[in-house]
Specification:
CATH class: Mainly Alpha
Largest sheet: none
Structural class: mainly alpha
Distance between the termini: 40 Å
Number of strands: 0
Number of domains: 1
Oligomer: single chain
Helix content: over 70%
Order of helices and strands: HHHHHHHHHHHHHHHHHH
Length: about 300
C-alpha cells in the first residue's frame, strides 16, 4: 500500500488540488478529517526531518542567505511590506489586519515537503521554516500589536512551536541513530506518509469553509482573489530576490508565500473576526493549488533546456 501510494508522489501537486476541492465539495469529509490535523502536521515535520540529509542541512544553516536574510525577510520585511502596501491601497482596516496577520505567521510546515515533491532541495525551506519558528514568538506578537492592537502571548506561541519541532526532531534523531538502514530502505514509504499527511491536511483545511462561502459569497470570492494575489506577489518577490537557478528561486517563493496561518489563528482565539477567519481560510486555496502551477512552469523550463 505504501509503495503504491509513493508512486503517486510525482502527482502530488495534482492530488493537493483534488484534496482541497474534495474538502470543499464534501463538508462532512472535511469535518471528519479535521481532528487529524495535528497528527498530520507532526508526520509532515517528522517525515521531512527523516528525509533531509543532515550534512546538507548543516551546510544550509551556514549560509547567511538561509540563516539570516530569508528568516528576516519572511518574518519582518514581508508582513510590514504587505501591511504598508494594503494601507497605501486604501484597504479597510479589518482587511489590512487579516492580510498582515496571515503573512506574519511563519512559513508552512508543509513547505519543505512540497518542495521535495516538486523535485526541489528541501533543506533550505526546512532550515528557514525552523529559524522562522524560533523568531515567531517575538515577531508575531509585535506585528500583531502594531497593526491590529492585539496582545498575543509569546510564551504560548513558543510552547506550541517547541512541542511540534522539538518532539518531531527528537524522534527523527532517535530513528536516524537506531534504524538508519531501515529508514533508507523504506524511503518511498516515508514519502507516501508525507504525501498522505499533506493530502489529509489539505482536506481538513476546508472544514467549515463551504458554509462561510455560502453565507458571504461575494465577500468570500473577493477574499479568495486577494489571497491568490498576495500569494503570487510573495512568490514573485522570492523569485526575484534569490540568485541562482529557477528551482532555488521558486523555493524561496514558496517559503515567503505559504504561511502557517493556523498558528496565528489559534493564538488569537475569540479575537478572530469573521472576516479575518474567512481570509485565513481563503489563504489555503493558493497554498495547495499553486504547487500545480509551479510544477507546470518547471516542466516547461526543463523541456526548453532539453530542446536547446
Amino acid at each position: 500500500m505504501g509503495r503504491s501510494f509513493a508512486k503517486l508522489m510525482p502527482r502530488g501537486p495534482t492530488l493537493l488540488v483534488i484534496g482541497v476541492l474534495a474538502g470543499l465539495a464534501f463538508p462532512a469529509l472535511a469535518d471528519s478529517v479535521r481532528p487529524l490535523m495535528a497528527a498530520a502536521i507532526f508526520v509532515l515535520v517528522l517525515g521531512t526531518f527523516l528525509q533531509v540529509d543532515g550534512a546538507a542541512f548543516r551546510r544550509a544553516l551556514g549560509r547567511p542567505l538561509v540563516s539570516l536574510l530569508l528568516p528576516a525577510l519572511a518574518m519582518l520585511a514581508c508582513p510590514l511590506a504587505v501591511g504598508f502596501a494594503a494601507r497605501g491601497a486604501g484597504f479597510r482596516p479589518e482587511l489590512i489586519i487579516a492580510l498582515v496577520l496571515s503573512v506574519c505567521a511563519p512559513p508552512s510546515t508543509g513547505t519543505a515537503a512540497v518542495a521535495r515533491m516538486l523535485g526541489f532541495d528541501a533543506t533550505i525551506p526546512l532550515a528557514v521554516t525552523l529559524l522562522s519558528m524560533a523568531l515567531a514568538p517575538i515577531t508575531v506578537p509585535l506585528i500583531a500589536a502594531g497593526f491590529a492592537g492585539l496582545a498575543l502571548d509569546p510564551l504560548a506561541l513558543a510552547t506550541r512551536l517547541a512541542l511540534l519541532v522539538v518532539g518531531a526532531g527528537a524522534l527523527a534523531l532517535l530513528l536516524r541513530r537506531q534504524a538508519a538502514a531501515q529508514l533508507a530502505r523504506h524511503s518511498r514509504t516515508i514519502d507516501a506518509l508525507v504525501l498522505a499527511s499533506l493530502l489529509l491536511f489539505a482536506i481538513a483545511t476546508m472544514a467549515g469553509v463551504r458554509a462561510q462561502i455560502q453565507a458571504q459569497p461575494a465577500t468570500a470570492l473577493t477574499l479568495v482573489g486577494l489571497a491568490f494575489a498576495c500569494n503570487l506577489a510573495l512568490q514573485a518577490l522570492g523569485a526575484l530576490l534569490t540568485p541562482g537557478p529557477l528551482a532555488e528561486r521558486l523555493t524561496t517563493g514558496l517559503i515567503l508565500s505559504n504561511r502557517n496561518v493556523g498558528l496565528v489563528w489559534s493564538a488569537m482565539g475569540a479575537a478572530v473576526s469573521p472576516m479575518t477567519a474567512l481570509f485565513f481560510a481563503a489563504t489555503q486555496f493558493p497554498i495547495y493549488m499553486m504547487p500545480r502551477l509551479i510544477e507546470m512552469l518547471v516542466r516547461c523550463e526543463r523541456k526548453e533546456k532539453a530542446s536547446s
